[in-house]
Design goal:
The complex is a heterodimer of chains A (159) and B (132). With 159 residues, chain A is mostly helical. Chain A has six helices and no strands. Chain A has one domain. In chain A, helix 2 packs across helix 4 and helix 3 runs antiparallel to helix 4.
């Protein structure tokens, strides 16, 4: 479900890039630049979390508190903050199960995340392994997380 | 007057969209920080700053490792971080605005304040001692 959301966004941007590049050269890059900036700025420190994994209100709060971003200063200049924030608003999750704002606006504290990763599925000791380190490190088990692909088929829990 | 201002703004807009960030070399960036500091940099002092904690949870080396020729790993997210030494990663310190952005944020995380030009020059002096 999330996979498609993210892929669609990526595909739209690719399309927009090629069309704009051919037809308008340097004209408006709306819809292209924000996604590229999201990758450049946010995915510098962590994977590009699919925007559909959090509701718009959570993204808005996150983008307003980047100076204190889960223990790190992730602040950006005002224009970039605004641009990425506006894009996230349009891409945020609207599925019923994503509509609730999770505690601390953490994807990993969302009800659906906890359900998917319940003890019966992921034994508690797995989270403590150095190879996993943190629930924010999706790529530890989801090998294609950076591409927005969280398919169960691709899960490989490290030792 | 109004028209020329509009055209001027248009050109600026075009330039901002199309031209790449002003490229410099790591050596030029080092020279700029040193000039700003007004005193000679010291590589040993830069190393000490890089590998020590400064009253907070992290040092620079918590994520970058104490060996700037190898890949680091983000302390929270686990994401790989390319080497810091310019000789081992030619993309380091070739964009002044990018260098400033990261120094500003990371010094705040490690030291609770921004680094001085002298401190940045020291760190860069140390990173530039690594040769292939």
């Amino acid at each position: 479900m999330f996979y498609f959301t993210f892929k669609q966004a990526a595909r739209m941007c690719l399309l927009a890039t090629s069309c704009l590049g051919a037809a308008h050269g340097a004209s408006s890059s709306a819809g292209v630049a924000p996604f590229a900036k999201y990758l450049q700025e946010c995915a510098a420190c962590h994977i590009a979390y699919p925007p559909g994994m959090l509701p718009a209100a959570s993204w808005q709060r996150l983008m307003g508190t980047l100076g204190k971003h889960y223990g790190a200063d992730a602040s950006l200049d005002e224009a970039t903050t605004h641009e990425i924030g506006a894009w996230l608003k349009t891409q945020a999750g609207t599925y019923k199960r994503v509509s609730g704002e999770p505690p601390q606006d953490r994807i990993t504290k969302s009800a659906w995340f906890l359900q998917k990763h319940r003890a019966g599925e992921v034994p508690p000791e797995v989270w403590k392994r150095a190879s996993v380190g943190s629930a924010a490190h999706c790529g530890a088990c989801h090998g294609n997380a950076a591409q927005g692909n969280f398919s169960e088929r691709d899960i490989k829990i490290p030792k | 007057m109004k028209l020329s201002a509009l055209i001027g703004a248009g050109v600026m807009h075009f330039a901002a969209l199309c031209s790449p960030a002003h490229a410099i070399s790591a050596t030029e960036q080092f020279a700029a920080y040193t000039a700003q500091a007004g005193t000679p940099a010291q590589a040993a002092r830069g190393q000490a700053l890089f590998i020590s904690k400064h009253g907070k949870e992290w040092s620079c080396s918590s994520c970058h490792t104490a060996t700037p020729t190898v890949e680091g790993k983000h302390a929270t997210t686990g994401k790989a971080i390319a080497p810091m030494a310019p000789a081992f990663n030619p993309e380091r310190f070739v964009d002044a605005a990018k260098a400033e952005k990261w120094f500003r944020r990371n010094c705040n995380d490690v030291m609770g304040r921004e680094c001085t030009a002298g401190e940045k020059a020291d760190v860069l002096a140390w990173l530039l001692t690594f040769k292939r």
